[in-house]
Amino acid sequence: MNLLDGKHVSEELKKQIAIEAAEMLEKTGRKPHLVAVLVGNDGGSETYVASKMRNCEKVGFKSSLIRYDETVTEVELLNKIEELNQDKSIDGFIVQLPLPNHINPDKVTEAIDYKKDVDGFHPINLGRMQRNLPCFLPATPFGIMLMLEFYGIETAGKNCVVIGRSNIVGSPMSILMARNSNPGNATVTLTHSKTKNLTEITLKADIIIVAIGKKNYLTADMVKDGAVIIDVGMNRETSEKTKSGYKLFGDVDFENVAPKCSYITPVPGGVGLMTIVSLLKNTLSAAKKEFY
Ligand code: GUN
To answer: What residues does NADP(+) bind to (predicted)?
Structure first.
C-alpha cells in the first residue's frame, strides 16, 4: 500500500506557484489577489477559509477576507458580489459554502463573474469543463486530478466509481475522470443515495473516489485488492478535540481498507490540502488571464 501524500504533493506544487507569483510581481508590480467571502461562523468554513488565506500569503499572493453575519440578506450579498465583479484589483473570489438557508447558493454562484470564478462552480465554467475547453476547474476534483497526475496513476480504460453526486465534488469529478484527457479516459460510474447494490459496483472498481460525507462509509468488503482509493471526506468528530480543532475523519474505514489498496489518500493530509493548491492555481490563472 502506498500513501498518496497530499502534504508532499501540495508543498511541491506550491513551490512552483510561488515562483510564478514572484515572476508576476517582478514583471507587473502586482500580486495575484484572492478574496474570500465568509457568511456566519460555521466551524468547518472558518477553518478552511483561514487556511486558504494563510496559503495565499505563503505563495506570495494578496488575500482579503470579507465577513458577514449569518443574518446578511441575499440582496446584500448579491450587491457585494457585483462590487467584487467590477473591482479590477481583484483577480478571483469565492463565497464559502454552505450558506444560511435563506440564501440561495445557485443564485450566488451564478452572480459571480465566471472570469473571476476561481472555485469553478459557475455553470459556464462547468459547461466548458465538460467540453474540455480552458476554464477554472472545481477545486477538489482538480486537486484529485493533480494528485493522480503527480503519482503517475494510470486512469485510461480503468473502472472508476465515484460515490456522491454533489455539485462541487462528485458530479464534476465524474466528468473529469471520463473526459478525453490525462488523467481521465476512465469508464466512470457515478453512484448516489438511490444506487442499488453499491458493493457489487465498487468491487469492480480500479479507482474509487468517495465524497459522501459519512465517516467509515467505504468498508474493506466493498474494495477489491489493489484498488486506488481517494477519500474526500472531512467529517468532524465534535467529541474528539485535538490542539488544532476537532478531529477529522474521512469517508473510508482507513484502517481496514488501506491494507487492500495499491494507493490511498489519508485524512487529514490527503485531498483537503490539494483543494487549496487548486484554488491557488486557479487564482494564478485568473491573474495571468490564462483562460479569459
Ligand atoms: N465548501 C466546501 N468546499 C468548498 C469549496 O471548495 N469552495 C467553497 N466556496 N465552499 C466550499
So the answer is: 164-166
